[in-house]
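Notes continue from the previous slide.

Worked example: a multi-chain complex. Inputs as given:
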Amino acid sequence: MKRRSFLIKSAGVGLASVAAAPAVAQTAQKVKWRMSAGWPKNLDAIYGSAENMCKRIGQLTEGKFQIDVFQTGEIVPYSQNMDAVSNGTVECNHVLSTAFIGKNPALAFDTGLSFGMNARQHYSWLHYGGGMDLLREMYAKSNIVNFACGNVGVQMGGWFRKEIKSLADFKGLKMRIGGIGGMVLLKMGAIAQQIAPGDIYASLEKGTIDAAEWIGPYDDEKLGLNKVAPYYYTPGWFEGSAALTSMVNKAAWEKLPDTFKIAFETASNEQYMACLAHYDALNPKALRELIAQGAKLSLFPKDVMEAAYQASQALWDELAGKNADFAKIYPQWKAYQKDQAAWFRVAESPLDNFTFRQLNKDQ
Amino acid sequence: MKRRSFLIKSAGVGLASVAAAPAVAQTAQKVKWRMSAGWPKNLDAIYGSAENMCKRIGQLTEGKFQIDVFQTGEIVPYSQNMDAVSNGTVECNHVLSTAFIGKNPALAFDTGLSFGMNARQHYSWLHYGGGMDLLREMYAKSNIVNFACGNVGVQMGGWFRKEIKSLADFKGLKMRIGGIGGMVLLKMGAIAQQIAPGDIYASLEKGTIDAAEWIGPYDDEKLGLNKVAPYYYTPGWFEGSAALTSMVNKAAWEKLPDTFKIAFETASNEQYMACLAHYDALNPKALRELIAQGAKLSLFPKDVMEAAYQASQALWDELAGKNADFAKIYPQWKAYQKDQAAWFRVAESPLDNFTFRQLNKDQ
């Protein structure tokens, strides 16, 4: 009851601020929005990316389009962030869409699927491969206009209490994991669990869970999981890259002057790469520190990777068989990914692999 | 003589349009600039990226900051694009800085060095690793403020009339190549030549040169080089990625209202990824078509890659020994690259390599 009245009140405030703006002189209009981020402030890279985006929008509009960022739980809990935008409680959010696959598994195409496209390929699919049109069509049914406003890159594969020697070690393994990767894990015989970040450490320490994935070295370091689960596996195949989304309430969006729409879209596009590049700047040092503190870094065994890949493909086929959005997006997405993979194997990957190997020898 | 008087006249026009703007009401001010692109219009991806950037700047400023793009040769030939910005003939350009290494080899850090950072790492170095500050300091001496406004990714290694079986085949090889890669080739015993794009086909056909690198499949296809030099080698190690630069005349920049500066910077950052993603969308199909037309795609032999890598490292040491800018930037850049390589080997590359291999098997 309390929750409901709060939602209604917030919605009123949000819409009023838009409706009050004069429709005539667009350039003189002032708009104030709220962005509900899915992160606490201490996840400073990802939360900071939301702040940087809103700061940029302010700069581009001479302060006339002001968006205040709220950390997770301040307005709604993470799980209600999509509803909050749909119903106008807030004008926009800053989330990983994969958190809402319970509503519609096809939302996973927005964040990225397991063994999906990398961050650069995903941007290409969205903006030059028809991906954004497909996602917008899906989101429109929820009264939302979506923007890809960041990416954290390939995540780490998580912290494990015991060494993973082969696929057999995944049978019955209780792992804290978010998003569509959890559905893949189930197919591999493991047990996926949803646990709030603040409870991961204690759950691993007590042995309530055997493993937990969080994000990458920079964010993982803050949770101190290496002390209770020293085996640090890579790569985080759960998402080929994890793109961040800002969902915007459709009615609020349509009331914006064109210049503000452009400012929002441009700042979002800018943050896609900025967020990724910032993580790339932060992760190397954090990884070194984690290793110095006892983290045992290993690649997942080959049979684990192969089983996860096969389980993923089987899952996509199943989901395409029972969800219309998934059925529509999947073949188009898959064809684009195959093209990208073929192309990256020709120029990018051979040079990356050669150069990285040489630099490693030089060290 | 004609050239000189044209330059002076252009400079006058450019500066007048800025000086005439009122200093008081920044939002009412209108500014019109010229951007001299290093490309003909028919290189539509790269030229289009310059146009998209300027279009975005227009949209962000409600048409008040208008930048018209001119194709190569319309205002000045490519080789004079840096001088043209330095002396105010044009307010800005759209180029690969590596074209101007004759003035200062350290300009190569802006486009990217042979076996240098990939497109994503380069952006991280620029914006989160101190790279932009180092480049700005260097450019300031030429009266220029620089922006990274695009990237074409790893290029192809070029078209060869004969098969390259080993490093020995590079001895005496006459190759058309731009940028710092030409200096590396010299160390490998080859002969680097500068030939205008329009003359590459005839030079290969006649045998005046043995090989030529241009850009990547999409742009290469337009030159039809597969008909006269069927061996298509990869990867283009000459630059780990090739970042595009917009150099801006410092005086013109300083006269801009803050909002226009922000619009320019944001549109430039947006295009960095947009240009790259657009090329990724275009290259796969072009490569397939080239192969269908007879291009014989091969990886450079291992000894060629290793010799090119060693020659590159030797060249950087030499250049650092005789050029103050190179000496200042190189150690900082190299340390950042090593960190990035170590990090990419942990998460990004293992997942990319695994996924690309699997997708290739599936096809």
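Summary box: The longest strand of chain A covers residues 144-151. DSSP finds 14 helices and eleven strands in chain A.
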